[in-house]
From TrEMBL, chain A:
Cited InterPro entries: BP-dependent_transpt_permease, MetI-like, MetI-like_sf, OppC_N
Disordered: region residues: 273-306
Protein name: ABC transporter permease
Membrane topology of the entry: Multi-pass membrane protein
Transmembrane annotation, as ranges: 77-100, 112-132, 138-155, 190-221, 241-262
Biased composition (Low complexity): 275-292
Amino acid sequence: MRTLRRAWRPAYAKVALLVLLAIALLAVFGGWLAPHDPLAQNPRNMLRGPGPGHLLGTDYLGRDVLSRLLEGSGRSVAGAVEAVAAAMAVGVPAGLASLWMGRVGEWIAQRAVDALMTLPFTVFAIAVVGALGNGMHQAMLALGVLYAPLFFRMTRAAALSLRHAPYVESAELFGASVGRVLRIHIWSKVLPTVIVTAAHALATCLLVVSSLTFLGVGVQPPAATWGGMLATDLGFLTQQIWAPVFPAALIVITAGALNVLADAVRDAGADELLPGGAPDPAAGAPAATDSPDTTKERADAALPVV
Amino acid sequence: MLGLALGAGGSLLLAACGGVATTGAGGGGETLRWGWDLPSTWDPVFSSKGWDVHLLSLVYSGLTQLDPKGAAEPALASSWRYSPDGRRLTFTLRRGLRFSDGTPVNAEAVRKSLERGKNHPKSLIASQLTSIDTVRAPDPHTVVLELTEADYQLPALLAGKTGMVVSPAAFGADEARLATRPVGHGPFRLVSYTQNSMASLRRDPGYWNAEHIAVERFEAFPKPDETTALAALQSGRLNVAQIPFSQVKAAREAGFRVQLIPSMVVRVLDVNTAMKPFDDPAVLKALKYAVDRQALLDSEQFGHGEVDHQPFPPGYTGFDPALGAVYRHDPERARALLRKAGYHDGVGVTITTTQPQGAPEQLQAQLNRVGFRARIEVIPEARASQVVYVQHSRALYLDQFAGRESPVQAMQVLFGAEGLMNPSRRTTPELDAAVAAVRRTPLESPRYPEVLRAATAVAVRTMPNVFLYTVPRALARTSSVSPIPSLPVVQRFEGVTAG
């Protein structure tokens, strides 16, 4: 919590949060704010430029672009959130649990994660969609499974040094259960890492959701998403060269704000994330240096998933 | 000579572009770089896509080919004649021709090639050759087809993929190799081929019509993406490309020559009447009246092409003007039909497509307006043939019919009991009789147009396919390329120069 309070202090973090708040409002209320029915077609009025009736113009079926952008915000953001939530649900508990699995268990968990990381993302997503049907939730599930290794490794790397810290070992010697050790001594220190990872992953997932829609996977027309609108706009560049700017701008702004916020949390928690800094005063001194295992896993965790 | 006669309206097939440059010299030209779909295989017997015929015709010839009006004209055969009862067709071959492997193109080779297409267990053209009983080669320059019944469509039928002659030495030695190394007698020879990437061809000076082939090198690439078609021309990567209709105006403004070549291609909905909800004739009828073809044409093709309720384009012999707008857009009638059939809460239907944007979205809105509850299902293009044509597991598929050299062949594909685009595999005795009558009628008979149109009318009224609009071939070319011949089915390149 201290880290989050510190993250709020820089002006750029405040701006990023405000932007994200605005995006969140758009995601929730975008459909209500839409001036027209986002699905209402008017082929006689297609590919019109911005004007009084349609502030951002109309698309290839005469639908109001502004209304589709607003109404599609929730779907676009929800998709990214769903994917990251799925990744966290799989990766974080597994990453923490792997520390108590014993040598064999750890080895198996890490090789399973290695195997997942080798899967080409687009092919995997299309395969999952082919097996489970083409829909938003199926595509997000595929995305979540592929992002789970990122959370597994980041969580594990952050927790690995804490696992053998004297104050954790002391707590265990005093009879604290695994659950209590995790909750009291480890989770609070791992949380900032998870938040930074989630923010970065959200930004990436937003782009990936867009690219999946671009490939016809996930959200299906006529439902609007930022990525879907971007994809179809590119087919009419000769008529509306400016059209892709609107959905692209929303994607860039959201992803940028998430990245800035993640940086702010990272900077604010830099000391705490390092085992040598900001110890829990009640728990004694942590280990002074990383073990070779910890250093390697943190480096591995930073590898891109996609 | 027999041929596929066109009515007076057939002039439309010639109307779109100017004259075609010809050269008597042949060869020596620059490279023609064409953006088109590369073939599913280079073996015509196993080709599964209608579009393959364009590239296959670069390396293969048939006994006949189609002229710009769609009538059969000589190719490997210099002439042909029917016996009086129409059950024997005799072709006389040109002399001195050779396949690209050096073996002679003679009657024995033609016999073996036709028999392979007819009898190979995996042949995809066998169903087109059922009227051929036996093939004989009484001398090296004569091929005789003994027919099971009078079939005057064969000269036109053999002008396409069905009649492409493959070297027997090639399929006798290593049949599988033909998929990537075609051995035929065509205007070009394949020099190198990288699947899904590029086919490089060189002019064959031994081709029977070589004096009209002007380009020395021909390179075929996959059809460029909609967003990059013009860029591909501007960069010089291609000098002829199929472009989307949305870019016709921009291409002209950018200085490219654009030809809208009338073709036999018709956009169509394949309807499976063995599946719900189209097992109910009222629902099928409501579907036909619910579709606003003009709105689809205007937004999908920017008005290029024509609304069409029939399997043939207006102006073609088989097009029946008397049918008129038989399923004119009538949402009230469609709504009433559904209500009368008891669907007061609407009827669910899935529109299957490989490309969800545009026409499927518009179609969905049109159907929902009259009481359907339509949803769009997207399937990968690579799976579409299997899912729709082989498994017949989709009730409504937004498709495109590429046309065929013979109208009877077209009807077999669309409506026949084994027709690829007849997913329910149901037909009617009335239609079977009408198609048989077409087959039995000589093409030069004054009754032929009437008989063919009668079959068209029966098909349109009794079969479930919902025809939408014609799709011209939009080809953009750089100024260095001379006009492309306006041919309705197979795109050939006689007389075309590049550079």
